[in-house]
Task: inverse folding
């Protein structure tokens, strides 16, 4: 029964890792201040909107903001150009995606992954804009730059990947691109998972489930590639743990995140490509928790980080953690 014993050991090791998580990253407070998050003032209208009845359109528009971010990052990284102007208009304050550029990929496999994911994310933007119709939100201002004070650099600095005043350039190498993608993909999965119970229209729910499945495939691609490259460059695996812990420091006290580090020993060693809870289920995040991460701020704010002026639509305030 050695095989059964090894399996039980592996499952126990996977559960134990949850108790061994590192402390939250207080550095995010500094990073958020540098990023210039906008604190919501008392009586501001977004607060009232956030507590009102949320419609399916509100949820889909929230998702559309996230798809704008992902699509612009992947399209620039894969092709050197972002979304066409025909995919950017809508309600709310329109803005540009700044700082993106093409990655000079050295690994052809990673390059092909980038091309595929970029095409998927562009399709998600166009699909959601069509599904929502006339009330679809415009793309807000998005920061995907490699600036030392930009969102990527502040996120990487808070995770301990770069020092004060040092830029993290997501377009500088295959590995940097993968780590930048890792920041987004797990969050996208938890966002759609968390929103799914709130969607009342079955047609919209089916569409959201379809996008959730694609985002999960994307996350698995990124996590698998980082894990494989981390076998020869352990610092990559350490970086995923640092990013994971940094995200968890923003969205509250619950542990909703995992890096790709393997657990167990010997025949009981397992990878951690799929981050799951104790019941083997994917994690969920509320809209407020998702905004904590993309705004790089654990407080209740209406902008910052990857969305300097906030997202468009009703759901635009992060949670107070």
Result:
């Amino acid at each position: 029964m050695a095989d059964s014993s090894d399996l039980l050991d592996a499952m126990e090791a996977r559960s134990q890792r949850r108790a061994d998580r590192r402390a939250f990253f207080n550095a995010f407070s500094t990073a958020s201040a540098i990023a210039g998050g906008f604190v919501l003032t008392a009586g501001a209208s977004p607060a009232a909107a956030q507590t009102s009845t949320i419609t399916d359109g509100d949820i889909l528009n929230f998702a559309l903001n996230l798809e704008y971010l992902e699509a612009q990052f992947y399209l620039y990284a894969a092709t050197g150009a972002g979304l066409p102007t025909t995919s950017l208009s809508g309600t709310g304050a329109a803005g540009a995606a700044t700082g993106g550029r093409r990655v000079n990929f050295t690994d052809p496999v990673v390059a092909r992954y980038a091309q595929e994911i970029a095409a998927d994310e562009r399709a998600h933007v166009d699909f959601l804009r069509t599904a929502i119709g006339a009330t679809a939100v415009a793309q807000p201002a998005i920061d995907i730059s490699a600036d030392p004070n930009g969102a990527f650099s502040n996120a990487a600095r808070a995770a301990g990947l770069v020092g004060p005043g040092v830029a993290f350039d997501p377009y500088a190498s295959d590995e940097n691109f993968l780590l930048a993608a890792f920041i987004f993909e797990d969050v996208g999965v938890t966002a759609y998972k968390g929103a799914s119970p709130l969607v009342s229209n079955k047609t919209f729910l089916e569409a959201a489930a379809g996008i959730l499945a694609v985002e999960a495939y994307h996350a698995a691609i990124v996590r698998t590639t980082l894990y494989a490259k981390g076998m020869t460059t352990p610092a990559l695996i350490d970086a995923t743990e640092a990013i994971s812990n940094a995200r968890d420091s923003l969205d509250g006290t619950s542990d909703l995140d995992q890096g790709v580090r393997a657990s167990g020993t010997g025949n009981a060693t397992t990878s951690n490509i799929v981050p799951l809870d104790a019941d083997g289920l994917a994690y969920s995040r509320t809209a407020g928790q998702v905004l904590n991460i993309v705004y790089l701020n654990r407080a209740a704010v209406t902008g910052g980080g990857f969305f300097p002026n906030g997202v468009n639509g009703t759901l635009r305030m992060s949670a107070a953690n």
User: Anything to note?
Assistant: The beta strands are 97-98, 142-143. The chain has ten helices and two strands. Residues 1-51 have pLDDT under 50 and may be disordered. Residues 202-230 form the longest helix (29 residues).
